[in-house]
Amino acid sequence: MLELRAITAGYVKKAPVVRDVSLTIAPGEAVGLLGPSGCGKSTLARVAALLHRPDSGTLVVDGEPVRHWRHRAPRELRTAFGVVFQQPRLSADPRLPLRDLIAEPLRATGRREGLAERVAELASGVGLTPDLLDRRPHEVSDGQLQRACLARALVLRPRWLVCDEMTAMLDASTTAALVAVVEEYRAATGAGLLAVGHDRTLLDRWCDRTVHWETLAASARPAQAGQPVAERIPAG
Ligand SMILES: Nc1ncnc2c1ncn2[C@@H]1O[C@H](COP(=O)(O)OP(=O)(O)OP(=O)(O)O)[C@@H](O)[C@H]1O
């Protein structure tokens, strides 16, 4: 279970961009998060993935309240999350060939055994041909780089995936391919998913339910009769 309880977070102490927001994702569940640009979706996603410390509120991961974020978080908790961002070029070291980019988390956590095989298996899974693995980010397309970033997010076999507008820059066929990779991984491992986006149709198809930003702050307070706190839309 991933529980964001009454989270307030932002970048300037007295002007939080996320105020009193609560959201719970059940084990294995896929939740889509929709909302207008600039409302704070990415900030909340970063709190959920241990990348941004909230000003107040509690994040509970699989029953454990989180006390530390970023490099201070315990490694086993940090590696429970795989994160993919909207702009792969901002999250990829431009010096690394794609094979090293994908392997980065394995090296950083000292898991070198079977590294080459794991990278090859994931690269093939996300649709990267072997010749692309020797190229650096500036030598591949956005879609190819995003495939590598997704492989990197999966390489440590996370229990939770946070996809923050993962497909916003991509065409329809690459979008479908990346969503299929995420869903295959989730089917095989039971990982839960928070998918942030603007494309309601995509999120409705992809996720078990889609939540609207406007309803999230209300869910921190007792719901009033007749007031929906989240919208459940059947997948497909
Ligand atoms: N590093 C930062 N420093 C200061 N302000 C920031 C920072 N990152 C985001 N913000 C501000 O916080 C607010 C929420 O940003 P956030 O990226 O969480 O929104 P979002 O809902 O994900 O938007 P979008 O859908 O456009 O990606 C915005 O007003 C943004 O300008």
UniProtKB/TrEMBL annotation:
Positions of the ABC transporter domain: 2-233
GO molecular function terms noted in the UniProt entry: ATP binding; ATP hydrolysis activity
InterPro entries in UniProt: AAA+_ATPase (IPR003593), ABC_transp_ATP-bind (IPR050319), ABC_transporter-like_ATP-bd (IPR003439), P-loop_NTPase (IPR027417)
Pfam families referenced in this protein's UniProt entry, alphabetically: ABC_tran (PF00005)
GO biological process terms, semicolon-separated: transmembrane transport
SMART domains: AAA (SM00382)
Keyword entries, A-Z: ATP-binding, Nucleotide-binding, Transport
Domain of life of the organism encoding this protein: Bacteria
Family of the protein in this entry: Belongs to the ABC transporter superfamily.
Protein name: ABC transporter
Organism (species): Streptomyces cyaneogriseus subsp. noncyanogenus
